[in-house]
Design a protein that fits this description.
By secondary structure, this protein is α+β, with helices and mostly antiparallel strands. The chain has helices at residues 3-16, 51-54, 69-74, 85-88, 106-114, 149-160, 176-188, 219-228, 237-248; strands at residues 24-29, 59-61, 125-130, 142-147, 169-170, 195-198, 213-218. The chain has one domain. It is built from 9 helices and 7 strands, in the order αβαβαααββαβαββαα. Strand 5 (169-170), helix 7 and strand 6 (195-198) form a beta-alpha-beta unit.
Length: 255
C-alpha cells in the first residue's frame, strides 16, 4: 500500500467524517511480526483483542494465539468444527451442554453450515493495524470500520455509489470475527466484491461500544470508494447536515 493512498484517505476521512474513528486493516503474512505485535495473555475472543489496534498498536495472530475455536476457523487457521457445534449454537444438550440459542434447532445449524464454506489462511500470520499505522510494504486484504449509525450510513451509501444493484453491502449471519475477516476476505476473491455489515454477534457485542457495528470493505472495493468520495453524495447539502452532527459528537473509542 502506498503512503499516498494512506494519506489521501486520511485527509478525505477527516473532511467528510470529522471526528470519526480511523478504520483498521488486516493482511496475512509469513514474515514474523515484531515481538510487541504478539502480546501474551490475549483474550480468547478475537474481537476482545481489537481494542489495542484501535489505539494504534499492531496485533499479529497465528493459530496458537487464538483461544477460540471459532476464531481459528473464521480467520482461516482451522477447517474443522467444534464437536456438537449444532447443539451449542441452538438448544444445547440437557445436562451436558448449554446452548447459545442463536438457531432454533440443530438441524438449522447444519443447514447454515452448508452455506458457510471454510477459508484457508494464505499465510501463517494475520496482522491487524490501524489505518495510520500501515506501511508501504503492507498489502491489506480488507479495511474494517467500527462505527456509529451516521458513519455507517455514509459508508453504506458510498459503497453503493457505483453499484448496478442494491446488494453492494451484505449482512450475513456470522460470528463477529467472521464478519470482519472471513466474509470480507472471501468477497475480495470474487469478481464483484461486496462490503460486509456486521458485529451483530451477541457474544461479541460486549467487546464493542453499544452504538457500534462493523463495516468491512474488501481492498479493491475500498479503493474504489476512496476514488469516488469527491464526486459522491458526500459533497452535497444532504451530507452536510449529517457531517455537522458528526463534528459535534464524541469519537467512538475501544470498549
Amino acid at each position: 500500500m502506498h503512503a499516498e493512498l494512506r494519506d489521501r484517505f486520511t485527509a478525505l476521512w477527516q473532511k467528510y467524517f470529522p471526528g470519526a474513528e480511523l478504520p483498521l486493516a488486516f493482511y496475512y503474512t509469513d514474515g514474523a511480526p515484531p515481538a510487541d505485535a504478539r502480546p501474551r495473555g490475549l483474550a480468547p475472543c478475537v474481537i476482545a483483542n481489537l481494542g489495542r489496534v484501535r489505539e494504534g498498536r499492531t496485533l499479529a495472530l497465528d493459530t496458537e494465539a487464538i483461544g477460540c475455536p471459532g476464531g481459528r476457523r473464521y480467520l482461516g487457521f482451522a477447517q474443522g468444527l467444534r464437536p456438537g457445534l449444532e447443539h451449542f449454537l441452538s438448544c444445547g444438550i440437557p445436562g451436558k451442554m448449554a446452548g447459545e440459542r442463536y438457531k432454533k434447532t440443530p438441524q438449522l445449524v447444519l443447514e447454515l453450515l452448508k452455506h458457510m464454506p471454510p477459508m484457508q489462511a494464505p499465510a501463517r500470520w494475520i496482522v491487524f493495524k490501524r489505518w495510520d499505522a500501515l506501511a508501504d510494504a503492507d498489502e491489506p486484504a480488507a479495511v474494517i470500520f467500527l462505527a456509529r449509525p451516521d458513519v455507517l450510513a455514509g459508508l453504506f451509501t458510498l459503497a453503493n455509489f457505483d453499484a448496478p444493484d442494491q446488494w453492494a453491502v451484505i449482512p450475513p449471519f456470522a460470528a463477529g470475527c467472521g464478519a470482519i475477516v472471513q466474509y470480507p476476505y472471501q468477497e475480495g476473491l470474487s469478481a464483484r466484491p461486496r462490503a460486509v455489515l456486521g458485529m451483530f454477534d451477541v457474544s461479541a457485542r460486549p467487546f464493542v461500544p453499544p452504538d457500534t457495528l462493523s463495516f468491512a470493505a474488501p481492498w479493491a472495493m475500498f479503493r474504489r470508494m476512496v476514488d469516488n468520495m469527491d464526486e459522491s453524495f458526500l459533497i452535497t447539502g444532504s451530507w452536510d447536515k449529517v457531517r455537522a452532527r458528526l463534528s459535534k459528537s464524541s469519537p467512538v473509542g475501544p470498549a
